[in-house]
Amino acid sequence: MNEEHIARVKELLTEWNPLGEKSILIEDLNNYEIEATDILFHIEKRHSLTQINKIISTVMNQAFGLNVKETESESIAEKIAKMLKEK
Question: What is the topology classification, in CATH, of domain 3-86?
Answer without folding.
Answer: Endonuclease III; domain 1 (1.10.340)
